[in-house]
Each structure stands twice: as C-alpha cells, then as structure tokens.
C-alpha cells in the first residue's frame, strides 16, 4: 500500500521479447508495433554503423600500409638522389678541370699542325732541290 498523497502505485514496465530483443511495454499495447519498429530501426542503424566502422578501419589500415611503403620508397629515392648528387658534383669538378685544360691543348694542337705543315714544306723543297738525294733515299 502506498502512502496517501503519492497517487497510484508506479507502473512497472513490462518487458516482452520481439525479434530477439527486449521491448519495454508500459501498458500501451496499441503502440507496441511502433516501439518495435523504432528499436529494430536502431538495431539496423547500429549494424550499419558497425559495418561502416569496420570498413573505415580496413581503409585506415590499408592507408597506413601504403604510407609505410611510400615512406620506404621516399627514403630509398633520397639515398639514390644523394649518391647521384655526389657523382654529379664529381663530374662537374672533372668537367671544369677539362675545360681549363682544353684551350691550352687546342692551341698546342694548332701549333703542332702548323709546325708539321712547315716541316713538310721544307722537306718537299729539299727533295725538289736535290734529285740525287731522292735517289739515295730510294735505295
């Protein structure tokens, strides 16, 4: 018995099983299908959320694996670039040394070619001046 002034005894919610889930029914049996739909809709929404979360987790794991793979490639390419830069620096130094020597060597070649031309002309003049020298050289 409830003390006076507190009204009627509180209703104790009843629970029924619908579709594998407990449904609270507060004496409003005419609303039962609506309550069941609302609860089953929540369960379907929860199932969708769980499946989306699993898909996102797989996507994140895939992206992390891709990121690790790409980081490895970036490190490898950075090392390769450093080696190529080192070779390039060495080649540039060698090219500068060659370019410094090239004009002097080209001038020396021109001088030798000119000297050779002069010597050949002198030799031909000598041969033409002395026919007996030609005969001696033929023997």
Question: What are its keywords?
Answer:
single chain, 139 residues, mainly alpha, two-stranded antiparallel sheet
* E-strand count: 2
N/C terminus separation: 156 Å
Shape: rod-shaped
| Order of helix and strand elements from N to C terminus | EEHH
Count of alpha/pi helices: 2
From the alpha carbons, calculate the radius of gyration and give it in angstroms: 51 Å
| Category from helices, strands and their pairing | mainly alpha
Helix content: over 70%
The biggest sheet amounts to: 2 strands, antiparallel
Describe the strand arrangement of the main beta sheet, using strand numbers: 1-2
Give a description of the structure.
This protein is mostly helical. The protein has two helices and two strands. It has helices at residues 32-129, 131-138, and strands spanning 14-18, 21-25. A two-stranded antiparallel sheet has the order 1-2. A hairpin with a 2-residue loop joins strand 1 and strand 2 (21-25).
Short description:
This protein has 139 residues and is mainly alpha-helical. It has helices at residues 32-129, 131-138; strands spanning 14-18, 21-25.
Give the SSE layout.
Blueprint: E1 14-18, E2 21-25, H1 32-129, H2 131-138
Antiparallel strand pairs: 1-2
